[in-house]
Amino acid sequence: MEGERESSSLTWALIQRKGKLDEVKKQAWLAGPLMGVNLFQYGLHMISLMVVGHLGDLPLSAASIATSFAYVTGFSLLVGMSSALETLCGQSYGAKQYSALGIHMQTAMLILLILSIPLAVIWINTGPILRLLGQDHHISLAAGQYACFMVPGLSAYGLLQCLVKFLQTQNIVFPMMICTGITTLFHILICWLMVFKSGLGFRGAALATSLSYWTNVLLLALYVKFSPSCAKTWAGFSREAFHNVFSFLWLAIPSATMVCLESWSFEMMVLLSGLLPNPQLQASVLSICLNTAYTIWMIPFGLSDAVSTRVSNELGAGDPEAARLAVNVALVMAVVEGILVGSVLILIRNVWGNAYSNEAQVAEYVAAMLPLVATSNFLDSIQCVLSGNARGCGWQKIGAFINLGSYYIVTIPCAILFAFVLHVGVKGLWLGIICALTVQVTCLAIVTIRTNWEQEAEKATKRVHDFAVPAESE
After folding, report:
1. What does the longest C-alpha to C-alpha distance in the chain come to?
2. Which secondary-structure segment (H or E) carries 345?
3. Pair 307, 392: CB distance under 8 Å
4. For this UniProt entry, which segments traverse the membrane (predicted)?
5. Are the C-beta atoms of 366 and 356 separated by less than 8 Å?
6. What three-state secondary structure class fits 365?
């Protein structure tokens, strides 16, 4: 009997180990291509700025400010609103209510297209708004022109985010990465032509970005229309999309709040850096560190999207234990990623600044900052996974309140205290970010630890079956 029990225990341990390895493979299979998608999308604006940079300081400054303004007032809001699809489409797919995915996507597209109208009005008035905020007259005028040429791509960006979430929640990620990669290659050519051959100058880069977004939308739309992989989830346009508006907004508004509160706080750090002594040095160092942090953030962001998909799928399928396992595995992967990337940042700290500037003072300051960037990346890796779990479960409201407290009750006061009262400079601003991430991770971890996964599966089942489209069988 004792031998049988030992054999049974060993078998169960092997099954559990295999389950964990399978989960690692599933998440790596999702996260890798999603990192590629995020990098390619980020690359569009980087390519545009690199091309514009060859025209001089004024066009580059104007394009940079216009891009930041566009992200704060438009892109971040559209990304946040579309994130509601991670809950709605992910849980519907897990519950095999395939037709619901297409309806949810259409609802999101409708809402985001309507939202694009007032956002476009804001973008058209970018120049006057920047002047009201005290920006240089010439830079404001040029930034306003750049933003106007980005307006045609605003609605395309919203549609693109909906298509990305629609495919992501079905685990269709490699075709999405290929389409986005093709778009980025196309953008290199079209951006060069628009800037140097069309007579538009620096404004051509903004128009090229808009055209590239529409190209990406077209490629993904054609894939959804003609691929057998989407045959069950896309049945064409339906009036049901109009009936689902309020259930979408119920998640989309707190989801947008969750994203915007976090992203806007980083923009506030940039504004605060301009008030420090020697603002040119401080702003340059902060810009390098933010650019570095954003680039490496693509890795945990891919993990965030992956765990969101896995959790929403498993809860929709009524398997709470699989959802719990997905979160635990993702957290281990995030810790490993945070340690590895942080170690690399610390090892290259003395040479990294030279890649951005020939000024020795800038390079030395960046070297002193990178250990702090490594620390924030480690915390951000864990935060991304916990936030992805929140989106998969449908906890957008909880996430919004946590982000409000973390980034505005903690970050801003701490950053001001360290940077201006204790005179730590840009390091103080970054310490404020670390304080916020610590609070954010702690709060999200407490919520996750206290989760009743069986209850979350029941909520997901109710959410899915409250929707009007009847569930299909396989």
Report:
1. 86
2. helix 320-347
3. yes
4. 28-52, 58-80, 101-124, 139-160, 172-195, 201-224, 245-264, 284-304, 325-348, 360-379, 400-422, 428-449
5. yes
6. helix
Query: Quick check: 10 pLDDT over 60?
Result: no
Does residue 471 carry a pLDDT above 80? no
User: Do 268 and 421 form a contact (C-beta atoms < 8 A)?
Assistant: no
Cβ within 8 Å of residue 438, ≥6 positions away = 379
Q: How far apart are CA 211 and CA 446, in angstroms?
A: 44
Predicted pLDDT of residue 130: 86
pLDDT in tens, 254-282: 999 988 888 888 778 877 777 778 777 77
The pair of three-digit structure tokens given for residue 386, joined into one six-digit string: 């916990």
d(CA 392, CA 275): 40
The 10s digit of each residue's pLDDT in 97-125 is 998 999 999 999 999 999 999 999 999 99
- Mean of the pLDDT values across residues 9-36? 74
pLDDT at 370 > cutoff 70: yes
Separation between Cα atoms, residue 225 and residue 425, nearest integer Å: 53
3-class DSSP string for 310-338:
HHHHHHHCCCHHHHHHHHHHHHHHHHHHH
Find out whether 165 and 86 touch, Cβ atoms under 8 Å. Answer: yes
Residue 62: pLDDT band with limits 50, 70, 90: confident
Residue owning tokens 């965030």: 304
* Cα 50 to Cα 153: distance, rounded to the nearest angstrom: 19
